[in-house]
Specification:
By secondary structure, the protein is an alpha/beta fold. The chain has 5 helices and 16 strands. The longest helix has 23 residues.
């Protein structure tokens, strides 16, 4: 039931959420708690969720969903009342963030705008992601299904995650693939986590270069006299002019 202990827990969680906003958002440095509560949409959404989740656990009907609905309308952040969120959680900017019913979020997690912790279909039961402690998820990332993101992992902006991510790992791409494990780059130069190397793009570039070399060698082997000297490739194919079709339209009408 909803009692004094629950209210104290909610108040403590809200206090830690305000501290996390001040610690992780440069714009909140030196800003008072009241101003953060009234001016930070991510904090407001989390405040509403703390209350809605307490009511949900107390099995209060209707009210949790109404609070969640009103919070989404005001802040642009949708958090299901049943979602479990740890302490010192921070949503930066917040617009477009969606957190599903069976999502579980650890302590000191940071989500940026446009992040989705969603389901991957019409399955029942546990169908949303689980995030460990100290996880950072970049703008626009989509984490789909009952995947587990290990503690201290980072998910790059616009990454799509459909498989588990080990702890201490950074993933990017669609689908997400690791580019760092335990702080060391898997491939490519080391950099800050926003500007991460992309092994897939690098592999495509290497394949493109290889195809160009093979085309040049093939042209030389066949003794093609029309190979362009600078590129070593055959000249571009002739382009046939497309003429308007005469007669009745095939679109009908």
């Amino acid at each position: 039931m909803l009692g004094l202990g629950t209210l104290r827990r909610v108040a403590a969680e809200i206090s830690s959420d305000i501290r996390s906003a001040r610690d992780r958002d440069p714009a909140a440095k030196g800003v008072g708690s009241l101003e953060i509560l009234t001016g930070w949409a991510g904090v407001q959404a989390l405040l509403a969720h703390r209350v809605a989740h307490a009511l949900w656990d107390a099995e209060v009907p209707v009210a949790p969903r109404l609070i969640a609905y009103g919070s989404r309308a005001v802040t642009g952040v949708e958090i299901h009342p049943a979602a479990e969120i740890g302490e010192e959680f921070f949503i930066d900017h917040g617009a477009g963030v969606v957190i599903g019913e069976t999502a579980e979020i650890g302590d000191r997690v940071t989500l940026y705008q446009g992040v989705t912790l969603g389901g991957a279909g019409f399955e029942t039961g546990k169908r949303h992601p689980t995030l460990g402690d100290n996880v950072t998820v970049g703008s626009g990332a989509k984490l789909l299904g009952p995947v587990t993101i290990g503690s201290n992992a980072k998910v790059g902006a616009n990454t799509v995650v459909v498989e588990d991510v080990p702890a201490e790992t950074t993933v990017v791409g669609n689908p997400g693939h690791p580019v760092r494990v335990e702080g060391r780059p898997v491939e490519g130069p080391d950099s800050d986590w926003i500007h991460l190397p992309d092994p897939v793009a690098e592999a495509i570039k290497e394949l493109s270069d290889r195809i160009s070399q093979l085309e040049r060698l093939l042209a030389e082997a066949e003794g093609d006299e029309h190979v362009e000297p600078k590129s070593g490739l055959p000249p571009a194919a002739k382009v046939t002019e497309l003429r308007p079709k005469k007669g009745p339209s095939s679109a009908g009408g």
